[in-house]
Design brief:
The chain is an alpha+beta fold. The chain is built from three helices and nine strands, in the order H-E-E-E-E-H-H-E-E-E-E-E.
């Protein structure tokens, strides 16, 4: 009976927190926002171009960047444009860098003289709210996410 009541209270606290976009820290190098697990150390992976950022996020695993969560390479990814916007309100992030963070949201536009050259632009945003579409060779920070399982 006692275990059931405690379990019910914990579940209720989690549901209330999720409804309020609260961050929950499992003390394993991650934060949780709604249905996303976020790397707590927002500066660990450094600054790089989009191609390297995408690969680095996908290769992140437990034992790196303060992670102790049993994650493995392939679990992590760059956040979408919408997810990156949500992360701006996340409290508890450590080592937040000045500058933009990459998202996985990209588009191809025709650019250059006569608009004849295709160029890939990806959404990026700072944690203070500045956002942009930038060429993939620009250097921005990496803040990987993975779904809550």
């Amino acid at each position: 009976m006692k275990t059931t009541i405690i379990g019910s209270l914990l579940l209720a606290a989690l549901l209330i927190g999720a409804a309020n976009d609260a961050a929950w820290c499992g003390d394993n190098g991650t934060l949780i926002l709604n249905n996303l697990i976020v790397l707590k150390d927002a500066g660990c992976l450094g600054k790089m171009n989009w191609v390297d950022a995408d690969a680095r996020a996908k290769n992140l695993a437990s034992g790196q960047c303060g992670l102790n969560d049993s994650s493995k390479a392939g679990d992590w990814r760059l956040p979408t444009e919408s997810e990156l916007r949500q992360l701006r309100s996340l409290s508890g992030l450590a080592n937040i860098q000045q500058g933009n963070y990459w998202s996985s949201t990209c588009l191809v536009q025709m650019w250059g003289p006569g608009l004849g050259q295709p160029v890939t632009l990806c959404y990026s945003s700072s944690m203070s709210g500045n956002s942009d579409r930038e060429t993939v060779n620009k250097f921005n920070y990496v803040l990987p996410v993975r779904p809550v399982k």
